[in-house]
């Protein structure tokens, strides 16, 4: 009898875990032939799976990241899995504003189109600083992508209708922005939450500014994903998180589905500035929909990155 209870308990636990890890998959098969996609941090995790999904649809996919060896290896894998040779790598360090500017200058010289920009790269909760003395989370997750997107906007407008997709996280709800200290770096997890909230405000203000210009913007929560973000932490923490991620987190392929959906689906155009999760629009906390805060953050970000 106890054996039967054990089996039933194990089966129940298994079903609960499967239910918690359920995700919708993008079923839209629209082709992207002739389209150019730029993915930051596309050499691993969600970014790499997104690259595979969009290359399979015929897009020209450009991986932008700072680790050349890892990126070139990723490019070879993406080509093999997608059966597309139209995948390439360009060097970009989002923790260095000079690198962002140099990358954009090179991109605009070499590439005649930019149809989809995917701001995927992100730093987890680390107590560190960028080359420009911004907290690593805020500097990479928000400011680096803010400058990148603004410098590439001319090409996005020329290639319209075009899209900007920025990955965020549902952890945004645990913090609010403090304009007296946007560079907050006392508690790394809180800094990460603020950077993800900034991604949402950025998306909303970008959508507002691009109204009528056929450039749409979306913030995506991919879910909690079994990616390699733990590499920034101790071995013991990595081992602990491997167990937790195996039990509760979804695969990188599953995590990429909402990004792919926002890149290809026609119905998302009506939700420019929106927040998406599990391949559909999702609700935000009321404070995360404040247009005044979004505009204020945009103006502060312009000053911080010295954007004329």
Summarize the structure.
The protein has 308 residues and is of the alpha/beta class. It contains ten helices and eight strands.
Integer-rounded radius of gyration = 19 Å
Helix share bin: 40-55%
> What CATH first level would be assigned?
Alpha Beta
Beta-strand percentage range: 5-15%
Query: Widest sheet: strand order?
Result: 3-2-1-4-5-6-7-8
Relevant CATH superfamily: NAD(P)-binding Rossmann-like Domain
Quickly give the structural class: alpha/beta
Overall outline: globular
Number of strands: 8
Q: How many domain modules?
A: 1
Protein name: Si:dkey-174n20.1
Keywords: Oxidoreductase
Pfam families: adh_short
InterPro entries: NAD(P)-bd_dom_sf (IPR036291), SDR_fam (IPR002347)
Describe this structure in words.
- There is one protein chain.
- This protein has 308 residues and is an alpha/beta fold.
- The chain has a single domain (25-304), classed as NAD(P)-binding Rossmann-like Domain (Rossmann fold).
- Helices cover 47% and strands 13% of the residues.
- An 8-stranded mixed beta sheet has the order 3-2-1-4-5-6-7-8, with helices on both faces.
- Helix 5 packs parallel to helix 6 (188-209) and helix 6 packs across helix 10 (291-304).
- The chain is globular.
């Amino acid at each position: 009898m106890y054996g039967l209870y054990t089996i039933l308990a194990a089966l129940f636990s298994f079903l609960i875990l499967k239910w918690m890890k359920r995700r919708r998959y993008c079923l839209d098969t629209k082709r992207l032939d002739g389209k150019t996609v730029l993915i930051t941090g596309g050499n691993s995790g969600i970014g790499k799976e997104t690259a595979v999904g969009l290359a399979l649809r015929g897009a020209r996919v450009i991986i932008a990241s700072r680790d050349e060896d890892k990126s070139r290896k990723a490019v070879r894998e993406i080509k093999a899995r997608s059966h597309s040779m139209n995948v390439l790598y360009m060097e970009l360090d989002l923790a260095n504003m000079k690198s962002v500017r140099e990358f954009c200058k090179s991109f605009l010289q070499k590439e005649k189109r930019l149809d989809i920009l995917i701001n995927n790269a992100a730093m987890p909760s680390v107590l560190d600083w960028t080359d420009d003395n911004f907290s690593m989370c805020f500097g990479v997750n928000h400011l680096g992508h803010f400058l990148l997107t603004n410098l590439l906007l001319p090409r996005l407008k020329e290639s319209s209708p075009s899209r900007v997709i920025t990955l965020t996280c549902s952890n945004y709800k645990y913090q609010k922005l403090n304009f007296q200290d946007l560079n907050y770096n006392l508690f790394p997890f809180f800094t990460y939450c603020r950077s993800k909230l900034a991604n949402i405000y950025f998306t909303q203000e970008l959508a507002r500014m691009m109204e009528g210009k056929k450039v749409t913007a979306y913030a995506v929560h991919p879910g909690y994903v079994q990616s390699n973000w733990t590499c920034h932490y101790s071995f013991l923490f990595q081992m602990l998180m491997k167990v937790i991620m195996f039990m509760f987190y979804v695969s990188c392929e599953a995590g990429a589905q909402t990004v792919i959906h926002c890149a290809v689906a026609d119905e998302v155009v009506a939700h420019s500035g929106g927040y998406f999760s599990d391949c559909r629009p999702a609700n935000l906390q009321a404070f995360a929909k404040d247009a005044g805060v979004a505009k204020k953050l945009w103006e502060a970000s312009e000053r911080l990155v010295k954007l004329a």
